From TrEMBL:
Protein name (record): Transcriptional regulator
GO terms of molecular function: DNA binding
Every HTH cro/C1-type domain range: 28-79
Species whose genome carries this gene: Promicromonospora citrea
Pfam families for the chain: HTH_31 (PF13560), MLTR_LBD (PF17765)
PROSITE patterns: HTH_CROC1
Length: 277
C-alpha cells in the first residue's frame, strides 16, 4: 500500500458514521467508516476507493481529491497533503484547486440557492445539492468534462436559456476571464490544453482573438427545469483571496422563481436521494 492509500485508510478509520451524519445500524468489526460509506459520501465508486487504498489506481483527479477531503472532514493542512500525495502539488504556476474549509462552510450556509465552486479555469470542483437538483448532477459526466467553458462552447450547457444579448455578454465575459487566468498561470498545462480544445469552437476563436481581459462577475439566465418549470435566476460570482476560486450563486429574480427553487429544494433533492439509494 502506498502513502496515499495509507493516509486515506487512516483518515477513514478515525471517523464514525455519526461523525458524517450516517446511521449506525449494524455491528462493526473495526472502527471507522466503511469503504462503501466513504464512496457514498464522496460520490465515487467503492471499487475506486479500494484501488486508491491499495495503491492500484491511477492518479486521482483534483475533483476526486476535493470530494474525498470533504467526505473525510480533512483540515486545510491535511487536504493540502492529500493533493500533494496525489500529484497535485500547489505551485504559483498552477491553477489552485484545493477548496479551503471556509469555502465549504460558505456553501453550506447558502443551501437555499444553487451554488457551484469552480477553479480559475472554470473547472467544476464542488456544488451543493440544490445546484445538482436544478441544473443536473455534474457527476454524470467524467471529471475532465466538468468545465463551464467546455459545456458552453461545445453546446452541452444543460437546462439554460438566455436571450441573444444575455448569451453574448455571458460568453464574452467568460472568455475575457479565461484570458486573465492564462496571464496569471501561463505555465499551467491544464489551461493550455483547455484553450487548445476550445479553439475547435469558431465562436470561442472569434472571442479569443479579440484579446479582451476581464472578470466574469455574473449572468442572467433561465433554468428550464423539467419538474418545477422555468426558474429565472441571477448568477453572481464571488472570488476568493488566495485560492482564486469562483463561487457561483444563483439567486431568484422574482417571487415565482423563489417559490420554484423552494419547491425544488423540498422535492427535487428527495427525488435525487431516491435515485441514488
Amino acid at each position: 500500500m502506498d502513502e496515499l492509500g495509507t493516509a486515506l485508510r487512516t483518515w477513514r478509520d478515525r471517523l464514525t458514521p455519526g461523525d458524517v451524519g450516517l446511521p449506525h445500524l449494524s455491528p462493526r468489526r473495526v472502527a471507522g467508516l466503511r469503504r462503501s460509506e466513504l464512496a457514498q459520501l464522496s460520490g465515487i465508486s467503492v471499487e475506486y476507493v479500494v484501488r486508491l487504498e491499495q495503491g492500484r489506481a491511477s492518479t486521482p483527479s483534483a475533483q476526486v481529491c476535493a470530494a474525498l477531503a470533504r467526505a473525510l472532514q480533512l483540515s486545510d493542512g491535511e487536504q493540502a497533503h492529500l493533493f500533494r500525495l496525489a500529484g497535485h502539488a500547489t505551485t504559483p504556476d498552477r491553477v489552485p484547486q484545493m477548496i479551503p474549509g471556509s469555502v465549504h462552510r460558505i456553501v453550506e450556509q447558502l443551501s437555499t440557492s444553487p451554488v457551484l465552486v469552480c477553479d480559475a479555469g472554470w473547472q467544476m470542483l464542488h456544488w451543493n445539492p440544490l445546484f445538482a437538483a436544478a441544473l443536473g448532477d455534474p457527476t454524470r459526466s467524467p471529471a475532465g468534462e466538468r468545465n463551464v467553458l467546455l459545456l458552453q462552447f461545445e453546446g452541452r450547457m444543460p437546462r439554460i436559456r438566455q436571450t441573444a444579448d444575455e448569451l453574448d455578454a455571458f460568453e464574452r465575459s467568460l472568455v475575457a476571464d479565461l484570458r486573465a487566468t492564462t496571464s496569471r498561470y501561463p505555465k499551467d498545462p491544464g489551461l493550455r490544453s483547455l484553450v487548445a480544445r476550445l479553439h475547435d469552437s469558431a465562436r470561442f476563436r472569434a472571442l479569443w482573438e479579440q484579446r479582451t481581459v476581464g472578470e466574469h462577475q455574473g449572468a442572467t439566465k433561465v433554468v428550464e427545469h423539467p419538474t418545477v418549470g422555468d426558474i429565472a435566476v441571477e448568477s453572481n460570482v464571488l472570488t476568493t483571496q488566495g485560492s482564486d476560486l469562483r463561487i457561483v450563486v444563483d439567486t431568484p429574480r422574482d417571487t415565482e422563481a423563489a417559490g420554484r427553487l423552494a419547491l425544488l429544494s423540498a422535492v427535487g433533492m428527495q427525488e435525487m436521494a431516491v435515485r441514488s439509494s
